[in-house]
Design goal:
497 residues, Rossmann fold, 6-stranded mixed sheet, alpha/beta
């Protein structure tokens, strides 16, 4: 670890926001041609540090040294000119544009410097997507892609810039195992070309496989830095959360009551010329106090199942009963009022309104509860919001702060709080731990267990088999829109970390 191996160094970086210190005199080294892993709990300051490197934010104090020369990028364009690119944790795409237009946005290929050469862009986009082994048509609207495919487009968008320092903030959070394997191969190619990678991920086993150096942040401060050969899974967890890994999570027992949700022959036909079903005659039941896990790969129909249960697809066929009340044909609002609520996989597009505060996002789905004659009761709102912030340990300076100022994990907790304020009987959780660190996962699992103990039925989806095995009382396995297997999992003690 000699100084000439460091291509970019952040020295004593401090970033203050009103009411909070996001980074407190942090040092961070990026080693040339290596995968430089940055880990920490949600709210530790990882994304803030990366935004400073990428020119999105400006540090309150401290300096950046690129090849020994001080730099101060004040916009993403300035950072790109210095060879620094970033793949954001939250997707940064235009849904009304197609794939090739998104990949080359603000860097369009032109003819004579005047007209956009769409054909050239589509050809280059196809090459980038082929490199990522994705059969996505460059002319496809981004809005029509599932979230995993949008993540691939975000990666291709950054690869098109030909950067020398590439920051990847949770690049695999929405990818299948096969897509992750492709990305790992691309990273190895980039390393061979002497490209330096900064890699942020909460998937610790993944980090052990691809990382060269690891840096740990906790509460905005540097905790440790080490080469990967000196690092273990136990070491990373202990540095991140400040306690031993063996004590991370042991779910409590909960009694299972009578049936609360019944689904019979739920079917959703595939649109367009393609024949077949997105959901193929799905039938199952959920009991009060039960945690029912659904495991399946991307495209297996898990998200479509939740959407149909919430009434998002009016042309779906089949019957859904909640406490013997038939929900089929009811609107989304009516289903929420009946006692079923969804925590969506894509919190940015479907779970939150970015221009609103934390408090207003929390109460969006339960406004009727705060009516006092013709007005909303600010006192009731404040009590409910304050209680959930405390119960879910949401790191926020105050409830009126913009939701966009929170870390990804804390935004996810706000989505959970919004759902809980509707007082559901059945809670649908679609990838509830996506983009969440190991400590925050424990908090989400605690919430699930507490809700089950209170008699709620919890139905959750995860691509992480360990999570499903740790939490579920029963497991439904989905493939190609149909249930393929039903498994009963022994009750606790079960351990997950």
């Amino acid at each position: 670890m000699t100084p000439d191996q460091v291509i970019l160094r952040a020295e004593q970086i401090t970033k203050n926001y009103p009411g909070t210190v996001a980074l407190d005199q942090v040092d961070f080294n990026i080693y040339q041609g290596k995968v430089n892993v940055l880990i920490g709990e949600n709210g530790a300051g990882k994304s803030t540090l990366m935004k400073i490197l990428a020119g999105v934010e400006v540090a309150t104090s401290g300096r950046l040294l690129l090849d020994g020369r001080e730099i101060s990028p004040r916009s993403p364009r300035e950072a790109e000119a210095l060879g620094i690119g970033i793949i954001y944790q939250e997707l940064n795409l235009f849904p009304n544009l197609n794939v090739s237009e998104n990949i080359f946005i603000a860097h369009e290929l032109t003819t004579g410097g005047l007209l956009i050469d769409h054909r050239a862009q589509e050809k280059r986009a196809a090459q980038l997507l082929a490199r990522l082994e994705q059969p996505i048509n460059p002319k496809t609207l981004v809005a029509n892609l599932r979230i995993g495919q949008q993540q691939i487009v975000e990666i291709a968008k950054t690869l098109a810039l030909d950067t020398q320092i590439l920051i990847m903030d949770e690049p695999t959070s929405a990818l299948s195992n096969a897509e992750v394997a492709v990305l790992v191969r691309v990273i190895e190619e980039l390393k061979a070309q002497d490209v330096s990678i900064v890699y942020i991920s909460h998937k610790l086993e993944e980090i052990l496989q691809i990382g060269d150096y690891v840096t740990v942040l906790r509460d905005g401060r540097l905790v440790a830095e080490a080469p990967m050969e000196q690092v273990s899974l136990k070491w990373m967890v202990e540095k991140m959360v400040g306690r031993e890994a063996s004590a991370i999570y042991t779910p409590a027992a909960h009694a299972i009551g009578p049936e609360v949700l019944r689904v019979h022959n739920l079917t959703l036909a595939r649109e367009g010329k393609a024949q077949g079903y997105l959901l193929d005659h799905v039938a199952f039941s959920l009991h009060a106090g039960e945690i029912l896990g659904i495991y399946g790969l991307m495209g297996s129909g898990r998200t479509e199942l939740f959407e149909c249960l919430m009434g998002l697809h009016p042309f779906a066929h089949g019957d859904v009963w909640l406490d013997e009340k038939r929900l089929s044909g009811q609107s989304i609002a009516a289903r929420i009022e009946s006692g079923i609520m969804l925590i969506p996989e894509d919190r940015q597009r479907e779970g939150l309104v970015q221009s609103l505060s934390v408090a207003h996002n929390m109460i969006l789905a339960s406004l009727k509860q705060y009516l006092s004659r013709f007005f909303l009761s600010s006192r009731k709102e404040k009590e409910s919001v304050g209680r959930l912030i405390q119960e879910l340990s949401i790191k926020v300076p105050n409830a009126q702060a913009l939701i966009s100022s929170l870390s990804g994990g804390n935004q996810q907790k706000v989505v959970v709080a919004k759902a809980l304020l509707t007082h559901p009987k059945v809670l649908l959780m679609d990838e509830p731990t996506r983009g969440i660190d190991v400590g925050a996962k424990e908090e989400i699992f605690d919430i699930m267990t507490e809700l089950a103990q209170q008699g709620l039925g919890v139905l959750f989806v995860s691509t992480e088999l360990k999570e499903v095995m740790a939490m579920a009382d029963r497991i439904l396995v989905m493939s190609k829109g149909a249930l393929r297997q039903k498994l009963i999992v022994p009750m606790p003690p079960k351990k997950h970390w």
